[in-house]
Specification:
There is one protein chain. The chain folds into 4 domains: 194 residues, 3-Layer(aba) Sandwich (Rossmann fold), CATH 3.40.50.300; 203 residues, Rossmann fold; 109 residues, Arc Repressor Mutant, subunit A, CATH 1.10.10.10; 74 residues, HRDC domain (DNA polymerase, domain 1), CATH 1.10.150.80. Helix content is 45%, strand content 13%. It is built from 26 helices and 17 strands. The strands form 4 sheets. It has a 7-stranded parallel beta sheet with strand order 3-4-2-5-6-1-7, sandwiched between helices. Strands 8-13-12-9-11-10 form a 6-stranded parallel beta sheet, sandwiched between helices. Helix 2 runs parallel beside helix 3, helix 22 crosses helix 24 and helix 22 packs across helix 26. The chain is globular.
Amino acid sequence: MTKHEILKQYFGHDEFRAGQEELIDAILAGRDVLGIMPTGGGKSMCYQVPGMLMDGVTLVISPLISLMKDQVMALKNAGVGAAYVNSTLTIEQLRLVYRRIREGAYKIIYAAPERLLAEGFVAVMQEVKISLLAVDEAHCISQWGQDFRPSYLRITEFLDVLPYRPVVAAYTATATEFVREDIVRILGLRSPFTMITGFDRPNLSFDVQKPKDKTAALVKFIRSRTDKSGIVYCATRAAVDKLYEELTKRGVSAAKYHAGMEDAERAEQQEDFSYDRKTVMIATNAFGMGIDKSNISWVVHYNMPKSVEAYYQEAGRAGRDGSAAECVLYFSAGDVMTAKFLIENGNENEELSPAERQQVLEADMARLDAMTGYCKTTECLRGYILDYFGQPHGETCGNCSNCLADYIDVDITTEAQMILSCVRRVRAHLGYAVGTALIVNVLRGGKVKRVLDLGLDKVKTYGVMAKTEPMRIRSYIDFLEREGYLRVTQEYQTLVLTDRADEVLFRGETVTMPMKQEPEPAAKEPVRKAGRPVKGAAVPSDVPEELMTVLKTVRLRLAEEEKVPRYMVFSNAALEDMGRKRPHTIEEFLDVSGVGSTRAAKYGAIFLEAIAEYERNEE
């Protein structure tokens, strides 16, 4: 078979996505490769297709059990022999898998990095021909990356104990240039063919919100999307538990996932979400790396993540099937302190020297600063992310909350003078700088104990902004920081004036800040900008809603009969294409995106009959 025949017969696609074919060709030619592709960009196809064409087996190193289970299930459903080796297997199951590997039953085998040097696993792998070693989430091998896993360092030791070196392919979605160089060096990639397809995900919309009540905002968001699956990410386990309890109390069909749960409970919750028995997953970042669930329509970050890399990877779990999806981040000032605490108390890797740990800490803090900048910027959100990864882009994207908002320039010189003067006077009064929260309290005339104990109610700027909302004052402070009038010290997160502040305080410089224009009270028809729908507007579809309901009902019945998640039958994108093309024969059914010969033989007649019946009723 050819690579195109594999693509069509097993995966139902007529064409490769950007970068896939070049990476596959390089592997088939015997070259090591490094693929940098966005989440949902089709990295797995880049090792599955060549793996099915090469003589021996393909061994995939994957960091999380969830990916292995999902992808092995999907491969088996497509008619491909696959298995995984990880800690969930019993001794008997492990022996069976090892025996089947020796018998040549599998073309693709997934393994956790922790298993690589286990005696039994090494013995089996030395007996079979490994043609390709694929390293998924390859950024985990770099201690300078956002998700360093020491177990990934075992990959090079594992390669050394094999009878011969296979082709090595490394893939990741969120590696900066420095991390990419680390991947090549540590894995020992030999003159690798490198493909960077870009980091942009045009089907994702981005939004940063600062709600007064995050839970109320989230409930409202979820209730307007009851027919769609989504993930809510929280910064801590305690936050997950609290939010899960609150949402369940309010009638939301939610599951939860974090590392502090018992294995059985965590597996049950994940299965409820994967099989769409529950439509919302509330989780820490322990959930999702490599999750192959394609029908996730939205991701909400209840707390700000610690880095742009982490945010983009987690947000990118929405819209994996190419359908339009939403990525929303709820930001509050407390998120920065929480993230800082997690960074300072989570960097305890004993394999690093004290000097190396300090370097990692500094790199983590720099990433946190970049993430905070994303939450505060008034520029294009997509552009901010692409700038971070070094990818050129247009000035606006037309599909983020900043690009879709109407901004007007507002003179805030008076407000700036009051804020800068307050920072100056508080420091003069105390002899040291303080943080944003205390400055806001002084400006608003707060009666809080610390303000009174420090005598800050005696400074001249006490209460000068009493009628201004705290969130608005914080937005002014964020802007003054971005524009270089204020600086936040990294060690203590205190506010200090820069030389530029004197221009406003003493030399008459005016300060103009772009502000979002408040929407009109009366509801208006959504207006498109830059060829994309405005935030909150439904994405138009040329498939009748009644037909989509019919197709989804058929899919649900088949999924329940086979005890597999719905997307394992067909993704939402495949159903939309099916509804658009309305096939009447198996040949036409094979033209639907995502339909291969295996699935056509298995499901074709059932869906063709459903479409025909819908059209008869339509007449």
